[in-house]
Amino acid sequence: MLRTVKPKNARSKRAMDAREPKEGTKTGEVLNGAMKDLMALKRPDAISFSKKNDIHPLDPQNTSSGSSSISSLEFWASKNDASMFVIGQTSKKRPNDLTFVRMFDGKVLDIIETGVENYVSMESIPSPKSTPGHKPLMHFASELFDTHPRFIQLKSMLMSLFNGEAVESIYLKGLEHVISVSLAPTPATLNTASSSTNSTTPLPKVHIRTYTTRLLSSGSRIPRVELTSMGPSMDLVLRRHTNPDPELLKQAMKRPKLKKTDVEKGLGKKRKSMEVDEMGDLRGKVHVGKQDLNKLQTRKMKGLKGGAFDVGDDTGDSDSDEKASKKQKLS
C-alpha cells in the first residue's frame, strides 16, 4: 500500500502540486520553427493561433477529449473561414507531432498525423526567398503517390495546403519557388500489389525540400532553370490517420456540370445572355418590356398636392395680380 503524504501547510501543498505530473499541450523549438516556416510559405493566406489549445483530434471519439477537439475545430473553421488546420504537439510517445486536418462544409473531412525529423529552418539557409503570395510548383517524385492509399492521401493533403488561386495559364517568371516531395528508398516488400493501409511494412519517410528558381539564358527560347535551396527542409514520418467519410468526400469532389470556359463560349443549354466576370461568378441579363413612367404610381405626400401657386391657370393668376395692384393704389 502506498503511503500518502499530507501537506502540513499551504507552502508544502504548492510544492507537492508542482511535482505532480501535469497534462498539457506543448510544441518545442522544432515544431515552432516548422509551423512558422509553413506559415511563411502560405502568407498571406494563413492565420496563426498563439494560444496553447488542448486539441487531440485523433483521440478516440468515446472520450471527451476527442469529441471536444472535433467540435473546437469545426467552430474555428466557421469563425475564421478556414478549410485546413496544422496542429503541432510533442510528447514522449509522439515527439514533434505535426497533424494536418482538412475541412469541408464546416466539418472534418480527414486527418493525417506525421512526425517531423531532420528539420532545417528557412532562416538558417542564406539564400534569397520567394515573394509572399506566389503559388508554388509542386513536384512529387515517387510512384507511390499514385498507387499507395496513404501517400495518395498525403499528396492530396499537401496540394490542398499549398494550393492558391486557380489559374488557367502560367507566367514563367511568376514561378519563384518549387516544393519537392520525395520518398526514401521503398522497401522491396512494399509494392503496388500489396499496398494497403493494414500492411505491417514500415512506410518510407517523406522528404520535403523547397527551392527558389532562377532563369538563365540557354541560347534558345526556353530558359535554363537553376534551383537554389530556400528552406524549410524536413522529413515526415507517417503516423495515425483517418479516412474521409464516403458521403462527405463525394460532396467535396462534386464539380459543376459546365466549366468556366464552356460558359464563356456559350456552350450548354439555355446559356443565352450569360457571362462570367473576372471573379468567376456567373451573371445573367434579364430583358423586360418597355415601361410607361407616366402611369407609375408614386407615394402620395401632403407637400406634393396641388395648390394656389400651381402653374397652368393663367387667368386666375392675372386676376389676383390686378386686385393686388388696385389695393395698393387705394392705399
From TrEMBL:
GO molecular function: rRNA binding
Keyword Ligase set for record: no
Subcellular location: Nucleus, Nucleolus
Keywords: Nucleus
GO CC annotation terms, alphabetical: nucleolus
Predominant location category: nucleus
Family annotation (Pfam families): Brix
InterPro entries to which the protein is assigned, alphabetical: Brix (IPR007109), Rpf2 (IPR039770)
PROSITE patterns, per database record: BRIX
Top-level taxon of origin: Eukaryota
Chain residue ranges for the region called Disordered: 1-27, 259-331
Biased composition (Basic and acidic residues): 14-26, 280-293
BP-aspect Gene Ontology terms: maturation of LSU-rRNA from tricistronic rRNA transcript (SSU-rRNA, 5.8S rRNA, LSU-rRNA); ribosomal large subunit assembly
Transmembrane segments: none
Similarity section: Belongs to the RPF2 family.
Protein name, as recorded: Ribosome production factor 2 homolog
